[in-house]
Amino acid sequence: MTTSEQQAPSSKLSNTLIAAGVIATMGGIGIFWSVSAGINPVTDDATVITVDGNTCAPFALELPAGKTTFQIINASDRPLEWEILDGVMVVAERENIAPGFSASLTEVLKPGSYEITCGLLSSPRGSLEVLPTAASEAARTAPPVAEFVGPLAERKVQLMRAGSKFAKSTKALHAALVTGDLDGAKTAWLSAAQDWARLGPVSLRAADLTNRIAPHPEMLVDGETDLGFIGLTRIEYALFAQGSAAGLAPLADALVEDASALQARIKALKAAPADMAADAAKQASILAEGQIAAGLSRHAGADAALLGAALDGLKRSMAAELPLIAGADAALGQAIEAAFGAAEQIVTATPYDPVASATAFGALADALSRVNRALSLEI
């Protein structure tokens, strides 16, 4: 056997292995987008929305109040998110939908006029008109539930403390950046980012401030070079990816102002009994279906720390309501406690596992989504 004959099988084997590697890599990418985008077949009763990055089709919607399933199709060439907004409050959201993929979203809609986002933050917004039904009118005119007065007050105090803590941590970050202390700024950034993560549920009620405090670069026309790329995510990019604290003082000034504005929003917030569990369920779902897979910390490598802080915020948001849940549905109360425990165990495990974490937060979101029905608060 000649030397060339001996090498031929090896060459063929190498080509085979390379091809297998490419297939495995593409499969891995497919798995990532399957997890983050929530690929689902279009169901007969779904309202289909097609987004091409600049507009939505249909651009104007009219639907009855109650539970509605949306199927969002990404017809653009970049990942996108789709939101229903009530002023500055995020009513429902689906993130990280990959190009050519679709994602489903089910939401209980209340009567009113809403906006829908269509791809990039700079894209024109569509409209959604939700018409009242007999069931929604009955829910609207139902007498207030006295049992929720205490939990709502306790939740308000907890949120005000969390907002104050975030404001203080942004000022500490500002002080480190003004002096050019790179190591000190990195430490202060992590503290501020964790405090922001704990405010996850309330951030849904301040979409404009959220897009300034922690904008996703992929939702901006020019990504990380876009003028709208500011706040914590921009500062993280400079500190950890570029290794510099220079020139960040103006960004820190704006961040401190936005944190102060968020404090004022929290102080003026008037939540309804159904909002506690609904906001927590939405936030857990957003984390499970997009943010964990995309990465909560793109450059600092602090995903586990930020996800742990987000979980802590969710636990605090539900603490006052858990006794009511246990009284109405003991099995559901136990399921929520177990879901929180399982999520905490996975998030704190070493090494950090984003896939397992997303699964745990999905289970938590599912449990929390059943609360309002158990408490007779859902339409």
Automatic annotation (TrEMBL):
Annotated EfeO-type cupredoxin-like domain residues: 42-128
CDD domains associated with the record: Imelysin-like_EfeO
Keyword Repeat carried by entry: no
Keyword match Electron transport: no
Compartments in which it is found: Periplasm
Main location: periplasm
Transmembrane segments: 12-33
Family: Belongs to the EfeM/EfeO family.
Protein name: Iron uptake system component EfeO/high-affinity iron transporter
Record organism: Rhodobacter aestuarii
